[in-house]
Amino acid sequence: MSTLSHLPGSVTEVIRPAAIVPEDAARAVLLELARRDVQNGGVWESEPSTWSRWDRPWQPSGEVGPAQLLGSLHVAYGTPTKYEITIYRITVTAAGLAAGWTVESLCDEALGYGGLTLAVCPRARLAAPPRPFRH
């Protein structure tokens, strides 16, 4: 994994090779993230490209209010196969770091809904780079 930082005080890691959530686990994870949505009293906000973990639910009006973003998993649905999900980057915000969250613990909470952890999650196969063009 390589570490980047794009938000002040945050930590971003690119997962290499990317973690692949198999179909059955992906279905379970998505169901639980929806059940634990920040607008329904939970702490997760799931969108097509990002799963975000908050420290508390949002206001009943749907506004963020005092909730603080702890971190996000950047995901791609339908890859490498139609029903799998690829996790390729994780960001833990400064608030998340202060609360004791790590890249692994953030991933493990989300993946745990599907019976996985980042350590045991299947990984994408890396293809060899193409041969150089010779004229």
Task: Write a compact overview of the structure shown.
By secondary structure, the chain is α+β, with helices and mostly antiparallel strands. The protein has three helices and six strands.
Write a structural description.
The protein has 135 residues and is α+β, with helices and mostly antiparallel strands. The protein has helices at residues 23-35, 94-98, 103-112; strands at residues 2-4, 11-21, 44-46, 50-54, 69-77, 85-92. The protein has one domain (2-112). The chain has 3 helices and 6 strands. Strand 3 and strand 4 (50-54) form a beta hairpin. The model is unreliable at 1-5 (pLDDT under 50).
Features:
single chain; 135 residues; alpha+beta; 6-stranded antiparallel beta sheet; 3 helices; 6 strands; disordered N terminus
How do the strands and helices of this protein lay out in sequence?
Elements lengths: L1 E3 L6 E11 L1 H13 L8 E3 L3 E5 L14 E9 L7 E8 L1 H5 L4 H10 L23
Antiparallel strand pairs: 1-2, 2-6, 3-4, 4-5, 5-6
The share of residues in helices is: 10-25%
Q: Mean pLDDT score, rounded? A: 91
Number of domains: 1
Strand order of the largest sheet: 1-2-6-5-4-3
Main sheet specs: 6 strands, antiparallel
Q: Number of DSSP helices?
A: 3
Low-confidence parts: 1-5
Count the strands?
6
Characterize the overall form. Answer: globular
- Distance between the ends: 36 Å
Elements, N to C (H/E): EEHEEEEHH
DSSP strand content: 25-35%
Kindly name the structural category.
alpha+beta
Q: What's the Cα radius of gyration? A: 16 Å
